[in-house]
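With this grant's support, the team has encoded backbone shapes as discrete tokens. A representative record is reproduced below.
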Amino acid sequence: MMVKEVAALAGISVRTLHHYDEIGLLHPSGTTEAGYRVYSEEDLERLQQILFFRELDFPLKQIREIISRPDFDRREAMELHHKLLQEKRVRLERMIDTLEKTMKHDKGEIRMTNQEKFAGFDFSSNPYEQEARERWGDKTVDESNDRFNKLSKKEQGQMGEEMNAIYRRLAAMCHQSPVSDEAQRAIGEWYQFLNRMGKYSPEAFKGLGQMYVDDERFTRNIDQFGEGLAAFMRDAMAEYADRHQN
């Protein structure tokens, strides 16, 4: 199918498809002699997966990471989408009910409590993303966080100070090459620190570094120690992992 046909079929714009192509999320399988994009049945299946994730409010970077994983299972993903969309439907029905009651409240037909006025609202987190993180994302990070939370307040403070010290050392050498001996020694300290809290293989360590850039939450927190630190750590962690693969 041509790009205009796919856009009309999926209810999205041609510009959106071009953007997906540019960021490596969905490349059309072929092109015509004139250079026009041509999408295969497999491309359409991938697009459907992308749009399911988008409906559940996943950022494009995370969608690309998930569906590009070697262990990504399309059928398993569809089962998860089904479960999460049903949960979203329940939440939307609660919000619709709240809206209808609010309309009646404004007309003086009923009186709502303050609690009833906000039934169904919850913007504190994305529950759908959390489930996907457990399957495809940073499960090791979550396990490390759980272990950290079980420490005493004093132990948490000591670990926090040590962690911040490592961040500061790395931030001070951001101007250097991430493959330099000094950078590799410092990032090695970070690897040892993390493995006191969880179990990180070199490959998992490399994946975590990529997450520092792909996930805006990580980037924002890490770059507080120095602009560009997240990207520097990603590159240093990738080099360290490659050097220490079994």
